[in-house]
Automatic annotation (TrEMBL):
Keywords on record: Disulfide bond, Signal
Domain of life: Eukaryota
Disulfide bond keyword on record: yes
Coiled-coil ranges (or none): none
Residues of the signal peptide: 1-19
Classification via InterPro entries: C-type_lectin-like, C-type_lectin-like/link_sf, C-type_lectin/snaclec_domain, C-type_lectin_CS, CTDL_fold
Pfam families according to UniProt: Lectin_C (PF00059)
Keyword Coiled coil annotated: no
Gene encoding the protein: LJM06_Clu19
Protein source organism: Lutzomyia longipalpis (Sand fly)
Name of the featured protein: 16.4 kDa salivary protein
């Protein structure tokens, strides 16, 4: 029991420490937390959830521009790829914002790079399920393999 309580304190303490591992930027209607360390997509999801944040989503051109500018002011390399909270299941035609399950249908705002997403059923890559912003492409979106370690963005909506 003592060890359990100690464990709870330790985890809480580590969670607080982890909050310092993010660059915090206030945008319209939300605060985004840009990680300073890289993680696979699903680890990034866990990290956002543990801190009571959600994995960042992008609902409009304005939100996209604001997040792109925030990332460009923080990340060190314009070659960087950054995970955001979009995921597609193998059996699903659509990418969805993981926080709300919203499908990115034809009428949704999107900012895919040319020829992206390349995962099936759109094209031929069968192992690209996770969404990133690619700064070799000005922040445009693409899908990639989820196990890759990348910086990622959590958010808290107002
Ligand atoms: Ca791709």
């Amino acid at each position: 029991m003592k060890f359990y309580i100690f464990g709870v304190f330790l985890v809480s303490f580590l969670a607080l420490c982890n909050a310092e591992d993010y660059d915090k930027v206030k945008l319209t209607g939300r605060t985004v937390y840009i990680s300073r360390s890289k993680a696979p997509w699903f680890t990034a999801l866990d990290n956002c959830n543990r801190l009571r944040f959600t994995f960042a989503m992008i609902k409009s051109q304005k939100e996209n521009e604001e997040l792109t500018n925030a990332l460009l002011s923080v990340i060190k390399s314009d070659e960087e790829n950054v995970w955001i909270g979009g995921l597609r299941h193998d059996l699903d035609d659509y990418f969805r914002w993981i926080s709300f399950g919203t499908a990115l249908s034809k009428t949704s705002y999107t900012n895919w790079a040319p020829k992206e997403p390349t995962g099936r059923p759109h094209r031929t890559q069968n192992d690209e399920f996770c969404m990133q912003m690619s700064f070799k492409d000005g922040g445009k979106w693409s899908d990639n393999t989820c196990w890759r370690k990348r910086l990622y963005v959590c958010e808290k909506r107002d």
